[in-house]
Amino acid sequence: MTGLSGRRRVSKPTASRHEMDLPKSVLVGDGVIKELGEFLKNLGCRGTVHIISGPHVMLMAREVVEEALRNEGFAFRWSNIGSVEIEPSKVTGGCASEQDGIILGLGGGRTVDIAKIVAFSSGHPFISIPTSASHDGISSPFASIKGSGKPYSIVTRSPLGIIADIDIISNAPFRLLASGCGDLIGKVTAIKDWELARDDIGEYFGKYSASLARLSADIVIKGAEDIGRRKKESYRDVVEALISAGVAAGIAGTSRPCSGSEHLFAHALDVIGANKGLHGEKVGLGTILMAELHGVGWENIVKALECIGSPTRAKDIGLSDEDTVKAFVHAGEIRPDRYTILNKVKVDESKARSIARMTNVI
Ligand SMILES: [Zn+2]
Predict the structure, then answer these.
(1) Between the N and C ends of the chain, which has fewer C-beta atoms within 10 Å?
(2) Separation of 180 CA from ligand 1 center, angstroms?
C-alpha cells in the first residue's frame, strides 16, 4: 500500500461545500506506455503493480508494459478478467491482495471500470490506462458494472494517474472512438438537466465543472468532420475531451456534468434487456431525443453524430422501434434522485413515439 488512496467515497456536494477529487498526473501522447515505470515512480507508488486486463490487450501490450515496469524495478502480477461478465461479488476486492501496492486498469471501458472498483473496494490507488476512447469513465470517480443491480454509475474515487497512449488508442476499432464522441455529445443535455435541477429544485450547480463538460462536447461537435475523417490529431482531441469530462465530474463531486436524461435513456435500454450497441452509441441516441424535449436543436446533434459516423437511428445498432419507445417512456424511473427534463415533461407512449419519429431515431 502507498497510502495514496482509500476507500472513502467522494462526498456529495451541497450548495455550501464540495470536494474536488482529481487525478494527480495525466500523461497523453504517442508511445507513452513505455514511460509507465517512471510515471508510477514519480507518483510515489511502491509495492507490487497489479495489472487488471483482458486477454486481447494482454497479448498486445504485455511485453512493453513488463519492460517498462522492470526498468524501474517494479514487481508485478496480472489478472485476466476474460471476456465474460465478472460477478459483482468478485469485483468488491476479491481479486486484490495484501502485496498489491497499486492497481492498474489496462483495457477498454469495462476493464477500466472493473479495475477502478477493485482498487476502490480494496483501498488501493488506481491508475487508468485506456486502450480505447469509448467513454469518460477513464478519468472520472464513477464506475458502472453490469449485474451489480444498479443500472447507473456508482461513486468511487478518481484515478491517481492516467496514461493515454494515442498510438494504442488510434489502433482500436473506430467504432469505439465514435462511441466516446456520443458520450461527449451527451454533455449538451446533461448540462441542460443540471441547470433545470438548479432552477426547479435548488440543486447544487457547479458553473466551472458544467462549462468544462460543455467544452468537451463542443470540441467534438466543432471537430466532427475531422474526427469522421479519422485524422490522428482528432484522436488526441477526443481523448483529452473525455479526460476533461471525467475531471469535470471529479471537480463537481457528482456525475451531474456528464450524465443526465440522455444517460437515463441508455440505462433504461439496459434495464429492459435491449442489450444492443455501445454505451456512447446509446447515449448519442438519447441525446437526440432529450435535445428535442429541452428545445436545444436536435438537428445539430444529429449532424455532428452523422459527420463522426456515430449512430443516429435505433436500427443502426440493431434496436427495435418498440424497445426504443419503451426505454424513452421508462427512462425517468431509472434514477428517482436525479431530477431531469423527464420530471418536467411527461413522456407517455404516444409522445415518445412521435418524438422518436420526428427526430428520425425510429
Ligand atoms: Zn457516459
Answers:
(1) N
(2) 8
CA atoms of 136 and 71, how far apart (whole Å)? 31
Q: In what order do the strands lie in the sheet with 48-53?
A: 25-29, 161-165, 126-130, 100-107, 48-53, 76-80
The structure's pTM equals 0.91
Ligand 1 centre and the CA of 98: distance in Å?
Answer: 32
272: which DSSP letter?
A: T
Give the fold, CATH level 3, of 174-358. Answer: Dehydroquinate synthase-like, alpha domain (1.20.1090)
Cβ neighbours, 10 Å, residue 216? 28
Locate CATH 3.40.50.1970 in the chain: 25-169
Q: Say how far apart CA 207 and CA 186 lie, in whole Å.
A: 18
Residues in the chain: 362
CATH class of 25-169: alpha beta
At residue 5 the predicted structure's pLDDT band, cuts being 50, 70 and 90, is very low
In DSSP terms, which residues pair with 77 in a beta bridge?
50
Helix or strand holding residue 245 (H, E): helix 232-252
Neighbour count for residue 172 (Cβ, 10 Å): 18
Give 357's contacts (C-beta < 8 A, 6+ positions apart): none
CA dihedral of 256, 262, 266, 267, whole degrees rounded to 10? 40
Cell of 262: 440522455
5 close to 46: Cβ distance less than 8 angstroms: no
Q: What is the mean pLDDT of residues 164-191?
A: 97
Kindly report, as residue ranges, where domains of CATH 1.20.1090.10 are found in the chain: 174-358
| Mean pLDDT computed over every residue of the chain | 90
Ligand 1 centroid distance, CA of 55 (Å)? 25
